[in-house]
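User:
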Amino acid sequence: MLQLDRYLQSDLPWVRWAAMAWVQRRPHDDPQLRQAHLAVLAHPLVRAQLEVVLEQPWMPMKNHRQASHPIHRLALLVDLGLRVDDPPGRVIADRLLAQQAADGPFQLLAQISKAFGGSGMPELQWAACDAPLLLACLASMGVPPASSLHSAAQHLVGLAQPVGWPCSTSPGFRGPGRKADPCPYANLLALRALSALSGFSDHPAADLGVQALLGHFERRAQRKIYLFGVGTDYAKPKYPLVWYDLLHVLEVLSRFATARADPRFLELLALLEAQLGPGGTITPSTVWMAYKGFDFAQKRVPSPTLELAVARILGRVQAAAVG
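Assistant: Predicted structure:
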């Protein structure tokens, strides 16, 4: 059983905040949560992430797995409580809203070579492996849906096919996979975005995405899809949620009732639970070095942030079972 007091008394402000927000699920206006939130924003490691995200322009996106890219640093900050009513959050949100394409998706500066269907020059564009993450960040920050987020969500659900979300981009580039296949990472990010938006978490397209991810796991021994496999590296819990792996998939799928009731989800959950030590402890076996200095970016001792990320998933599953 999780020893919550140990996290609430941590010297790390984001650990105290996560214990209250992720596990105790306190409201945003809770005084203790708010105090911890301000301490998170003031911490040097977090301020360093904010500085990168606030720099303009962002470096061109060349590889969506590049954990140091500002989009992933922003996603971490949002997961650790960054809100639109925080001064830096307002600046970041306004910049992203200004980069919305006419047909809905949020864009970022990307550079795709001519050999792969791009211009070879940095330009604003969107892909199914980044636009949904920007939408998820804005929604989770508390940006009012209004027309901007709603049109982005409508565009996103419009991309869904009977098999889930395919690989798609504004310049017409398609990743290394079969055209008829769903892209596992695109489905993961699409579900992450829809789950953050009121009125879209139960959209029929969401169930297509859930089935795409669970189906990929079910058929893991047959072949990779768009080079995404479900093997040893996939099964290692890793924070923050940057790429297509066990923790990221479970965090997103656990938000959907149809997934939580599926035996394949429970099998995935068992893979995660088997890696927990006494009291829910876990020591990272793989890390994103872009976040060096954080407790979750070392492989020597248990990481309280990673433990709370697991506890957030388990708590969501347990609450749904009771309710």
